[in-house]
């Protein structure tokens, strides 16, 4: 396959996006004395052991719980099989180009998101910091989902699954077992399934509201602690340990999905569920919300603007070919989402068949799908304990990949910017990882209290849901409009020997930022205060949610103020123009313990 090739002087400056690249020297008088430009230096940064390790790490990060509990439901409500048309259009206009952009930025700068954005466009370095803040907020509660799955996994090793019947102390008078021999078709309207009561009353011990926090659930404390121990040992040696772990955690879920699909299609009613999933509703393609959902799903599933892709790519070899990695990760992620839809809806069809309902009456999304609806279906299978154990272990593997990817962003950013200071006290990377994991574990304790599910829902909605597109827009503007799409293309040429296709640069400069802006505006127009089931959050809780959102939102104006303060120039306008100038050519990261700085003359000896 031939790449687009051209000399860097051949009409590159005629393409939009390069006009902001001309600030090669500071505007106005300099505050410092002239100096001789130092010899170009390079940081010896750890690399992935094999290219496959990097791809598996990115696939494991992208293919997460959202592929199982979000995409199938989104496909169902957005036109069934017809939804695949806007989904793949948005994948090729937004998802793939932005994945290429972040991988190229990380590989070229060899820095995490904060350092990379600071080098490309100092004025928007706050966008890099904001991605790290979002990832940290997510990792404090994302591990709770893994803890839930771990708790369910342990419960599978019993003679009878505990969510199978209503004969337990946590069950109420409203509990109704559809699979009981005494069950009739006259099910009360206010009845609750055994699996739902097990989740709410046993796993969560859910209180009446967010203002009733209750006590810590020790049954969840142990699996949460074990989850953080697992995350620690996945990343404690950096990419050396991560690269080995992903061989299992990124591939095993596919084995389970294939096994569950094989079992699902043999169940009565499965065909009806699959037909319900793929049957196209063409009229819904005229609804703008369907197209926005398609773009948002690609964006969130691949993991754009969370910082992990930039951090992972920064450990690639400088001459690594980016295009095959981009296509492998993006297409495998899309294929997994679709295949997971077949797996989930084959089981939902069976549930509808056994309960005498329509498929649409049993469809749900989010934690309710994997911790209430799906466990209820597993009860009715032969050797139900085996299928349940496989399913929940798969959830743990899907979650752990995404979890340690988010934690890796934190570690990479701390090393890039505070490495010399940190290692003066901690000495070893293993201790830094330990400190981050312990602090995150302690923060996450609020989510495993009896009222923790309300905090979980609140932070989940506001940590990334409100601010993600806002941050992504400024990230893309900084890279492709100010730094320049063509300049990034020349960086790719420097690394790989070939320019990216013109298709990528057109999408970078036009389609991607416009689509992000559209999703952002649409989100504001459709904004409603969050709820949890029938529970309406009080005003102070909504205010708390906005406070969580502002932790990342304010990073951008804060970064701008800091960049203007540091920029050279006599006037504010001069400082502003200098803050737009890339620092790639005259900025070299300072060394810290464990990282060696060498000159170009010594490079060949490495």
State the main characteristics:
disordered N terminus; 24 helices; disordered C terminus; Amino acid/polyamine transporter I; 4 strands; mainly alpha; 606 residues; two-stranded antiparallel ribbon; single chain
CA gyration radius, whole angstroms = 25 Å
| Overall domain count | 1
**Proportion of β residues?**
under 5%
What's the tally of helices?
24
Report the average pLDDT across residues: 84
The largest sheet, given as strand count, sense and whether it forms a barrel, is: 2 strands, antiparallel
Distance between the termini: 32 Å
Look at the structure and give the CATH class. Mainly Alpha
Give me the CATH fold name.
Answer: Amino acid/polyamine transporter I
- Sequence stretches where pLDDT stays below 50 over 5 or more residues: 1-43, 586-606
The spatial strand order of the largest sheet comes to 1-4
Explain what the structure shows.
This protein is an all-alpha fold. The chain has helices at 51-62, 65-69, 71-77, 84-109, 113-120, 125-155, 194-203, 218-235, 239-249, 252-264, 270-278, 288-302, 308-313, 322-355, 367-379, 384-425, 429-443, 452-463, 468-496, 502-525, 539-553, 555-566, 572-579, 600-603; strands spanning 41-43, 531-532, 535-536, 597-599. It has a two-stranded antiparallel ribbon. α6 (125-155) crosses α19 and α12 (288-302) crosses α20 (502-525). The radius of gyration is 25 Å and the shape is globular. Mean pLDDT is 84; it is low at 1-43 and 586-606. Belongs to the sodium:neurotransmitter symporter (SNF) (TC 2.A.22) family.
């Amino acid at each position: 396959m031939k790449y687009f090739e051209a000399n860097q002087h051949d009409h590159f400056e005629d393409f939009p996006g390069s006009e902001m690249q001309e600030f090669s020297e500071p505007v106005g008088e300099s505050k410092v004395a002239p100096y001789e430009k130092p010899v170009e230096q390079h940081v010896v940064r750890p690399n992935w052991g094999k290219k496959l390790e990097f791809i598996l790490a990115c696939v494991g990060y992208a293919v997460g719980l959202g592929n199982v509990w979000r995409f199938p439901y989104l496909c169902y409500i957005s036109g069934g099989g017809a939804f695949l048309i806007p989904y793949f259009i948005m994948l090729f206009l937004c998802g793939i180009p932005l994945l290429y952009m972040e991988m190229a930025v990380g590989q070229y700068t060899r820095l995490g998101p904060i350092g990379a954005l600071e080098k490309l466009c100092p004025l928007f370095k706050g966008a890099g910091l904001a991605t790290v803040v979002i990832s940290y907020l997510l990792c404090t509660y994302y591990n709770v989902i893994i803890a839930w799955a771990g708790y369910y996994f342990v419960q599978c090793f019993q003679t009878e699954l505990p969510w199978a019947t209503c004969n337990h102390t946590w069950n109420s008078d409203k509990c109704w077992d559809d699979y009981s021999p005494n069950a009739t078709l006259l099910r009360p309207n206010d009845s609750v399934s055994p699996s739902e009561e097990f989740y709410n009353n046993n796993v969560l011990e859910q209180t009446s509201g967010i203002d009733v926090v209750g006590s810590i659930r020790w049954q969840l404390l142990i699996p949460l602690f074990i989850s953080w121990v697992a995350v620690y040992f996945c990343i404690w040696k950096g990419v050396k340990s991560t690269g080995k772990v992903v061989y299992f955690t990124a591939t095993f879920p596919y084995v389970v999905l294939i096994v569950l699909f094989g079992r699902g299609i043999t169940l009565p009613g499965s065909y009806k569920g699959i037909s319900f999933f793929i049957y196209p509703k063409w009229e819904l393609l005229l609804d703008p919300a369907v197209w926005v959902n398609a773009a948002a799903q690609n964006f969130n599933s691949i993991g754009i603007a969370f910082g992990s892709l930039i951090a992972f790519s920064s450990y690639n070899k400088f001459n690594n070919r980016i295009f095959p990695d981009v296509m492998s990760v993006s297409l495998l992620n899309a294929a997994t989402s679709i295949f997971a839809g077949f797996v989930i809806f084959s089981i939902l069809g069976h549930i509808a068949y056994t309960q005498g309902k329509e498929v649409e009456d049993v469809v749900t999304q989010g934690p309710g799908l994997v911790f209430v609806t799906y466990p209820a279906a597993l009860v009715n299978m032969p050797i139900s304990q085996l299928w349940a154990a496989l399913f929940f272990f798969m959830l743990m593997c899907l979650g752990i990949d995404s979890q340690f990817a988010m934690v890796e962003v934190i570690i990479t950013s701390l090393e890039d910017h505070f490495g010399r200071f940190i290692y003066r006290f901690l000495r070893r990377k293993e201790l830094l990882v330990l400190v981050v994991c312990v602090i995150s574990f302690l923060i996450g304790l609020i989510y495993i209290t009896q009222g923790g599910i309300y905090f979980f829902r609140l932070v989940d909605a506001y940590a990334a849901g409100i601010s993600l597109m806002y941050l992504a827009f400024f990230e893309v503007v900084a890279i492709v409009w100010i730094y320049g799409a063509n300049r990034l293309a020349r960086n790719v040429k420097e690394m790989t020997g070939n320019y990216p296709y013109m298709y990528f640069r057109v999408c970078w400069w036009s389609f991607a930022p416009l689509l992000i802006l559209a999703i952002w505006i649409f989100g504001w127009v459709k904004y409603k205060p969050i709820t949890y089931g029938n529970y309406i959050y009080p005003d102070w809780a909504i205010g708390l949610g906005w406070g969580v959102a502002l932790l990342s939102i304010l990073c951008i104006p804060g970064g701008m103020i800091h960049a203007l303060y540091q920029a050279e120039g006599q006037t504010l306008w001069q400082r502003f123009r200098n803050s737009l100038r890339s620092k790639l050519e005259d900025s070299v990261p300072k060394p810290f313990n464990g990282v060696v700085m060498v000159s170009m003359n010594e490079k060949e000896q490495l």
